[in-house]
Amino acid sequence: MSRKKVLIIEDELLIAEDIKQYLTQKGYEVVDIAISYETAIKILKNQLVDIVLLDIVLYGTKSGFEIANYINKHIHIPFIYLTSHTDREFLEKAKETAPKAYLSKPIQKESLFATLEMATFLPNEQNSKIVINDGKISHYIDKNEIVLIKSDHVYLKVYLENIDKPLVTRNTIKNMLINLSGSGFISPHRSYIVNIEKIEFIDKSDLIINKTRIPISRSQKQAILQVLKE
After folding, report:
1. What is the tens place of the pLDDT at every residue in 19-56?
2. Within the chain, how many helices (H) and strands (E) appear?
3. How far apart are CA 216 and CA 173, in angstroms?
4. pTM higher than 0.85 for the full model?
């Protein structure tokens, strides 16, 4: 299999070089690093690129959103947003450009690798599959098999149907929830993500899933009840 060609569009060069080194070690070919809209478009017009890692806030007057629009109109290759902005309005604007994924900074390298694998190797299954990388193996999991996800310091424990031992991956609840968006998952508490279809019972302060009692934060209670009504 040929090496996948990655373009990194990131105006913080130390971050870009760190990502480049990591991806090279993982077998990807980084074709170039761009820090602005103009440089990125020039590279995209003149070099073969399989996937783009795209920072949203860039050097110059134009943003990553405008590069995304160019890609969608002229090239039709997948791209993954890298950004420190995680507010709802920003995320909604990002989703309008149809990225393959959205990773918040600081970038977790294992999560980046898993997301790249999904975007480049399983393009037709992006909506139903997710990659869980445990540091040694990339597990291609049907999202419907996920029962719940629990945060454990800098790691996540991913519990699957009919499997007693969870998969452990270095990632954050925030990143994982973004990659599961639109797939029937909610976060009742900052330390958990649950599959709505697997919920067994809900009371005033907790929900029960897989015989596990999970707390519901006060700020999330009304949102969760609304989702369950739908």
Report:
1. 999 999 999 999 999 999 999 999 998 888 989 999 98
2. 7, 15
3. 15
4. no
